[in-house]
Amino acid sequence: MAIWLKKGKPEAQVMEENFGVTKVVAQIIKDVEENGDRAVRSYSEKFDSWSPKSFRLTEQELKQIFNQTDPGVIRDIKFAQEQIRNFAQLQKDSIKDIEVETLPGVILGHKNIPVNSVGCYIPGGRYPMVASAHMSILTAKVAGVKRVIGFTPPIKGEIPKATIVAMALAGADEIYILGGVQAIAAMSIGTESIEPVDMIVGPGNAYVAEAKRQLFGKVGIDLFAGPTEVLVIADETADAEMVACDILGQAEHGPTSPGALITTSKELALETEIEIKKQLQKLPTADIAGPAWENNGQIILVKDEKEAVYQADRLAYEHVEVLTKNPDYFLENMTNYGALFLGKETNVAYGDKVIGTNHTLPTNKAAKYTGGLWVGKFLKNCTYQKCTPEASLLIGEYAMRLCEIEGFMAHKEQAALRVKRYSIQGETA
């Protein structure tokens, strides 16, 4: 039976805190819907002190930003994008259109059709989230989306140059310096100057996530992404320094970011708690990571690998690192996770920034029913059917009887009309 050596906030308390966010977001969306650009500008001034002549960057402005960016930064961004593009293309190549004859004269098929337009939100806030440009914009372009627009907020009144470079290199057709709920609302609803999109993707804070939730249906979304999560599964072969380092690596995202350790070793559990306190004393982002661990951290002691899998699947965390002597056991047996990082040689930072897999992943237990963002999210799997007259006659006779069972008489008539016509054709042929 699992033993909790440390627990985070109760779920009920977290839900109560989220209720205030819901009301604020609803009001902003309503205002943007009613007042368009005027509302967008008002909220941008209020929250970001940002009110340029145009939120959309011109080609000349983009050229200036590239000229002002360190060539080394551009080189590193290009390397990361090469990895993300390569894996995304391989994933796309695994998706096939099909057309098959299931009965004589019955042709069924499906096509994978890209969404026509996508809005990508690239978070800012405390940090310039450069990598989110690769994960969303670039992946959408690999999928074949025709119009991809990118939004990112200013940071302390400045344009985040490296983020803009990444957005442009990823292939964004339009780039806007605009963040928050007002950006999500503008992309979804449209304003006088911003044409709406069909789908919105990308991570963000609690307000951005709630805006996507409220606007889902008007537009498609990738997933409901809340605060980032990390789970480390470790046994006696792991060392506390690495476990603590990897938990704090995600905790610095924000004070509401959950981190957890599931371990079969009580000694490692106790050492990890000590090591986290030690590392927080030196960590430049301790003012964020410290409260995240204090309020949302968990340590769960389990008896064996099987129980570790059970508890990990129950948590269904976004990132799961496996630091055990047999990491492949978890690859074979776990079912609920955003991304797995198997063995001490890899870690969440690799996945977040450069290795090639997508970092936009399910949180808040959404891993129980969905995976993360990938090329397939931008593709609509659309079916079609064709029949010969002889096949229509066969299928129609079954359809008539089945429609009558359900009481759908107009449906029955569709089938009956074809049965009648193709029966006559068969008789006169």
From TrEMBL:
Annotated binding of NAD(+), by residue: 121, 182, 205
Keyword Coiled coil: no
Active-site residues (renumbered): 318-319
Stretch forming the signal peptide: none
Source species, domain of life: Bacteria
GO biological process: L-histidine biosynthetic process
Xref: PROSITE patterns: HISOL_DEHYDROGENASE
Record-linked SUPFAM superfamilies: ALDH-like
Name of protein: Sulfopropanediol 3-dehydrogenase
GO MF term list: histidinol dehydrogenase activity; metal ion binding; NAD binding
Cofactor(s) of this protein: Zn(2+)
PANTHER family, sorted: HISTIDINOL DEHYDROGENASE, HISTIDINOL DEHYDROGENASE HDH
Keywords: Metal-binding, NAD, Oxidoreductase, Zinc
Annotated Gene Ontology cellular component terms: cytosol
Family indicated by similarity: Belongs to the histidinol dehydrogenase family.
Binding of Zn(2+), residues: 250, 253, 352, 411
Cofactor note: Binds 1 zinc ion per subunit.
InterPro entries, sorted: Ald_DH/histidinol_DH (IPR016161), Histidinol_DH_CS (IPR001692), Histidinol_DH_monofunct (IPR022695), Hstdl_DH (IPR012131)
NCBIfam families from the UniProt entry: hisD
Residue sites binding substrate per the record: 228, 250, 253, 319, 352, 406, 411
